[in-house]
């Protein structure tokens, strides 16, 4: 059977509350939470997370009499006890399809889980087979996406974050605003070229959108409502964390701190990557623990993690007896 695994919004809220309590990384959205849960190397962790599955299709079905329509088979699956969305509807005309699309869009905030559109399919399986596929998708189905939700707010400041590779990313600090049911207070500005393209200044009124209903981004500046006291965004020439020189290689959009592991920010991000599930997968070594280890200067390189004593670890917040 084919379908989609997802996480309901109340479940995500509980998981993130527990992550904050234990000093672990929170999930940005239900989509990341569901994907991260399925990719766990330890199936016991996945089993503890309440995931939901909706069946919407099938691979190969052989034997027995089966309905000749897509809806008929979904109803058959439901009779077999498989989970099928109760939002599946048969429409008889394009107008009815459009009306149902708008109905789901209207009901979207109360569903209890995130969706970004409606999939419209040809009901007749014989016609589906006749229509066939293009390279990566069927000709008999189309995803009718909802428009991204947008809101206006003000840029209160622009800060510069330093990543694991030294990349310096400008981040807009916003007057908090609700966008698609999520309180947004930050939005990435990517790089100096993007700031120049937008013509953005600190204090500007801007339009915010959650791209793919997930990542907050600044769409444009409302120039007609620009306040008189806006300030230019000045890209740093020295790292805001370690004061090392910032370099931008010709032809690249990203500026980088040249400090390497001397830079506290790069050190933290490198260590977080080192202990992450994709690397050593060190259980219990969350972001908050790494932050403390670097700030207390217990760890300067990944090798230092292997020489930590129990005394140092138990002195950290969330690690004591």
TrEMBL record:
Q: Which residues form the NAD-dependent DNA ligase N-terminal domain?
A: 1-279
Listed PANTHER family = CHROMOSOME TRANSMISSION FIDELITY FACTOR 18 (PTHR23389), DNA LIGASE (PTHR23389:SF9)
Could you say which cofactors this protein requires?
Mg(2+)
- Presence of the UniProt keyword DNA-binding in the record: no
Q: What class of enzyme is it?
A: ligase
UniProt record similarity statement:
Belongs to the NAD-dependent DNA ligase family. LigA subfamily.
Please identify the protein, giving its name as recorded.
DNA ligase
Any one GO BP annotation for this protein: DNA replication
Tell me which GO cellular component terms the UniProt record holds: cytosol
The EC number(s) this enzyme carries: 6.5.1.2
Protein role: DNA ligase that catalyzes the formation of phosphodiester linkages between 5'-phosphoryl and 3'-hydroxyl groups in double-stranded DNA using NAD as a coenzyme and as the energy source for the reaction. It is essential for DNA replication and repair of damaged DNA.
Entry keywords, A to Z: DNA damage, DNA repair, DNA replication, Ligase, Magnesium, Metal-binding, NAD, Zinc
For this protein, what reaction is catalysed?
NAD(+) + (deoxyribonucleotide)n-3'-hydroxyl + 5'-phospho-(deoxyribonucleotide)m = (deoxyribonucleotide)n+m + AMP + beta-nicotinamide D-nucleotide
**SUPFAM superfamilies the UniProt entry points to:** DNA ligase/mRNA capping enzyme, catalytic domain (SSF56091), Nucleic acid-binding proteins (SSF50249), RuvA domain 2-like (SSF47781)
Q: Spell out the molecular function terms from Gene Ontology.
A: DNA ligase (NAD+) activity; metal ion binding
């Amino acid at each position: 059977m084919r379908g989609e695994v997802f996480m309901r919004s109340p479940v995500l809220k509980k998981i993130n509350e527990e992550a904050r309590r234990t000093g672990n990384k929170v999930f940005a959205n239900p989509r990341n939470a569901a994907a991260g849960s399925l990719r766990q190397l330890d199936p016991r962790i996945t089993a503890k997370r309440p995931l939901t599955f909706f069946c919407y299709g099938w691979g190969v079905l052989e034997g027995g009499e089966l309905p000749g329509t897509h809806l008929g088979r979904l109803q058959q699956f439901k009779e077999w006890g498989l989970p099928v969305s109760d939002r599946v509807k048969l429409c008889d005309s394009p107008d009815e399809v459009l009306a149902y699309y708008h109905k789901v869009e209207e009901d979207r905030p109360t569903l209890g889980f995130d969706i970004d559109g409606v999939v419209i399919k040809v009901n007749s399986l014989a016609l589906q087979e006749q229509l066939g596929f293009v390279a990566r998708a069927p000709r008999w189905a189309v995803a009718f996406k909802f428009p991204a939700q947008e809101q206006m707010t003000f840029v209160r400041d622009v800060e510069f974050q330093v990543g694991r590779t030294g990349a310096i990313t400008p981040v807009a600090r916003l007057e908090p605003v609700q966008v698609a049911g999520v309180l947004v207070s930050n939005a990435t500005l990517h790089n100096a070229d993007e700031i120049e393209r937008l013509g953005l200044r600190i204090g500007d009124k801007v339009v915010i959108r959650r791209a793919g209903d997930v990542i907050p981004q600044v769409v444009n500046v409302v120039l007609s409502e620009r306040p008189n006291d806006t300030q230019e965004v000045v890209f740093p020439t020295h790292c805001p964390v370690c004061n090392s020189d910032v370099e931008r290689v010709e032809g690249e959009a990203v500026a980088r701190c040249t400090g390497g592991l001397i830079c506290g920010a790069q050190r933290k991000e490198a260590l977080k990557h080192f202990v992450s599930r994709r690397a050593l997968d060190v259980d219990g070594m969350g972001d908050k623990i790494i932050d403390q280890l670097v700030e207390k200067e217990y760890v300067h390189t990944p090798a230092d993690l292997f020489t930590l004593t129990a005394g140092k670890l138990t002195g950290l917040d969330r690690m004591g007896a």
